[in-house]
Amino acid sequence: MSKRNVIDFLRTSAARPELLASLKVRGKAEVLKVAADLGMPFSEAEFDSLIWGLEARLAARRGEAFDNRFSLWTTMWGQYYLEYLVVDMVPSLAEPEIEAALHEGGA
Predict the structure, then answer these.
(1) Least C-beta-crowded within 10 Å: which of 60, 68, 82, 90?
(2) Angstrom distance (rounded) from CA 66 to CA 26
(3) Cα four-point dihedral sign 76, 4, 20, 15
(4) Interval 14-30: pLDDT, tens
(5) Residue 49 CB neighbour total at 10 angstroms
(6) How far apart are the first and last CA of the chain?
(7) What values do phi and psi take at 68, rounded to 5?
(8) How distant, in Å, are the alpha carbons of 5, 17, 19, 44, 52 from that of 49?
(9) pLDDT for 1 beyond 90
């Protein structure tokens, strides 16, 4: 399993709108299963630690605290969390930020 698979999976979901539309309403366990079925397995712990790390990096770059007042939380309103990650968060990050987060604590 791999944190890199998380990024690959989110990018695959961005490139396949029908996949994202299907997954955005599913629970995390179902999303993990679909990712594994697509050949991109990752654990819930890998997903959570990577995503929180990426969100914290994005907040830091924006000069904001990563807390309940982080301005991107308002971007999420009207979206499912997976949709927010695929459409807003991952594309907002530079490749070096993603790579750095992938290597925190081992990829």
Answers:
(1) 68
(2) 26
(3) positive
(4) 999 999 999 999 999 99
(5) 16
(6) 9
(7) -70, -5
(8) 13, 25, 23, 9, 5
(9) no
